[in-house]
Amino acid sequence: MSTTDTPAPTGAAGDGAVPPVLVRRARLLGGEETDLLLAGGRVARTGPGGSLEAPDGARVVEAAGLVALPGLVDLHTHLREPGREDAETVRTGSRAAALGGFTAVHAMANTDPVADTAGVVEQVWRLGREVGLVDVRPVGAVTVGLAGERLAELGAMATSAARVRVFSDDGRCVHDPVLMRRALEYVRSVDGVVAQHAQDPRLTEGAQMHEGVVSSVLGLRGWPAVAEEAVIARDVLLADHVGSRLHVCHVSTAGSVEILRWAKARGVDVTAEVTPHHLLLTDELVRGYDPVYKVNPPLRTRADVEALREAVADGTVDVVATDHAPHPVEDKDCEWAAAAMGMTGLETALSVVQEALVETGLLGWADVARVLSSAPARIGRLEDHGRPLAEGEPAHLVLVDPAARRPVTPEQHATQGRNSPYRGMELPGRVVATVLRGRPVVLDGALVGDEPAGAPGAS
Amino acid sequence: MRHLLSAADLSREDALELLDVAEEMAATQAREIKKLPTLRGRTVVNLFFEDSTRTRISFEAAAKRLSADVITFSAKGSSVSKGESLKDTALTLQAMGADAVVLRHSASGAAHRLAHAGWSGVGVLNAGDGTHEHPTQALLDAFTLRRRLAERAGGDPARVLEGARVAVVGDVLHSRVARSNVLLLETLGADVVLVAPPTLLPVGVGTWPCRTSWDLDAVLPDVDAVMVLRVQRERMGGGGFFPSAQEYTRRFGLDGRRLRLLPDHALVMHPGPMNRGLEISAEAADSPRSTIVEQVANGVAVRMAALYLLLAGEDAA
After folding, report:
1. CATH 3.40.50.1370 describes domain B135-293
2. Which residues of A are catalytic?
């Protein structure tokens, strides 16, 4: 890819006029070569490859050989701010997201303070706006302080400037069945959804890894599949009973897939996500006790990985969501039991999806657009994202070079986290450009310019 | 041998060599002057993040009898209790010139991390990591078993344990001793059966190289040795693994009646410390067929062999 004409525009989203961009000969959803003229934050015109002329002052992006997808939407990101700025900030997380091809991310609520009030979600939302590289959509906590005891002010968060639609105690399960029922019922009034972290707390006390053959040998306390499956089974029945919408976070077992398949066949309004790491990695990796593989829910078996891939292919699992969970080095450079759970994922998600689902023939690029963009946007009620790349639609897009292959080097990532489980692996695909609202934020695989200096504190 | 982290690290040849060296070490321990000059000038650090008087003393005695300088770090009263991480402790020891670290830690895999995380280049000997492994305990058990069975039947010491039938009874789930013993005895050709209530067998045990049973009475008449494991009440948290101590003792305790179900030659073993009256009765623990005190004595010889192969072995190579 090469670019010509005007210099890179800088400034936060919404800053003045963005020069038009002509994307030339991109393969739309992996199909025909298409020209896309982006202007005024929208797709102004489309035409067959090589058919459109660049208007005066337009930047031309030569995209022959690249696949164009709508900007990716992550339904599950930990940006850590406020409270754990040593792990990640909205700024560093936004940079990582843009480089990974995302134009919108849902920032999980387990910050410090917890995002359980309108004030905190508005703070996160505003930080995202100031950075301006992706649309940061805060997730609100279901219960006050994630304590699982009483509902947070879901309505206040929904009607705040952050317009929260996804509510989750992620990291903790809304375990109390009555509280879960009330949450499911209550969010209907704001067109919201409860995103459940399905983990029975009693069955997973002190759990360190998937309970099975490997845990038995390693002497690490097991996290049994049933602890996830039992909660999902209860929740789909609850959602059915009260007629609510339910989303299940990071589904990790073959049994969960069966329950979801059954629930969907029954007509329950349930959606589910799977992480990239659960589509590629297994508990066999834990044998070396390297905590980079410590994650919740844990890495499962090969049979689970296969079932999850099939579930994405047949639509039982709707979304691939990163569960990007950066940690400072000291939280991973220790013995297994002392280490934090979680893996980075924003900058590798698309490559892992290509490796696990595209190269295996399970998904085409149009399906990738569905699981990484349109479905998560629909679940999160992001009307402006996950739209088709067609005239009049918002100009959020990503250009991917599917022929590239490169080793993963966490030190080169924009996230502050170095805890990538793919270190040293060679993965296919490379995000070449990311365009947010018609403005290229990533070009040639690098961030364009930089965020405005001194952004924090700006209005 | 660079490290000794798991019984699975030992090939049959490695294990037999270690047991043979331990025999030589044991022979020196019968002499009036027990000290050997082998590791003079080498520094062995005993790093004990978890209390374990008997294992610590055993390693201390082993290192001292090989003339190594021994430094013992216990969690209590050291920087470890002030929150220093395993990594920083490792860097400190490296800086002080330790040649080998004997590590006891409550986290499974701690020895593996210390050896392989890139923190230091010191040789690591696993003296028990969480509920994972305790390889020198398995080696001393195998040493004891081999000696006793050879005394009775004679034959090639390399083959004495082939086909030997060993029951390991009790809290397998939380036992690093059981894991190491299953692996080592399998390597040496023995036939192991684990006996425990289903709640104290890990999910996945079906893939281990051994059999399992819930019926101790049925197993005892066909074994050459029964190893009784300590019921680790401190690891049982909320409990509920069995209804009561009394019921455990009735179903899985080695008492006088069960002692008499054993063949005449069969041995009674226990890694210690014992809960007398829970998993083993005084009659069983103190019977002539009990090797429990002998196991402790053999522990020193086996740990001398392990330290020797870890430290002097690298010079020979």
Report:
1. yes
2. 323
